[in-house]
């Protein structure tokens, strides 16, 4: 059994998708990041960066005591190693998966998050920041589109944790939708993954964990999400 410390965000959704794809037994431990659960000592003991997601695997492969993992990319790699699925099957395929996973972790996720912060959540508009992050996310979408014009999935012929990591970060903010018309290969890939049964099951979990999903953030939520030091 795996405990998943989760809230419905793009990084959290990576892990529900992976767990649904692999069929591992898991239970969700909600971490309400709008009310400050991520700063509780119990959560910080397994996720010292006070960010979701995190997991605790009560049956690690080495047979030892329960093992905790934080950071979504590290969790995906851990689960791929545990199951032997979606991580690549040889040196070259594992390298392809790893480099596109790192690309998402270092680029697509952080830049999309900053775009959302300045364009959607910031109390006062900062035109330079809005333009900066809009342009960078569009550049990253162009990188994806070019890659996906050559291969069906990010790491090549096979669906992998690289796709699982990138997919939730494409269509995040209703006020900043991706330009699928300009990037048809990205659109094809995104739609194909959305139709996977495991992805549908993972997405269906989101409103059950946070019934207020999609509602405007309140001041307390903003304070917990953006005001902590």
Automatic annotation (TrEMBL):
Residues 210-229 are annotated as: Disordered. This is Glutathione S-transferase N-terminal domain-containing protein. Residues 1-87 form the GST N-terminal domain. Belongs to the GST superfamily. PROSITE patterns: GST_CTER (PS50405), GST_NTER (PS50404). It comes from the Bacteria. Residues 219-229 have a biased composition (Basic and acidic residues). The lineage of its organism: Bacteria, Pseudomonadati, Pseudomonadota, Gammaproteobacteria, Lysobacterales. Gene3D superfamilies: 1.20.1050.10, Glutaredoxin. Residues 90-217 form the GST C-terminal domain.
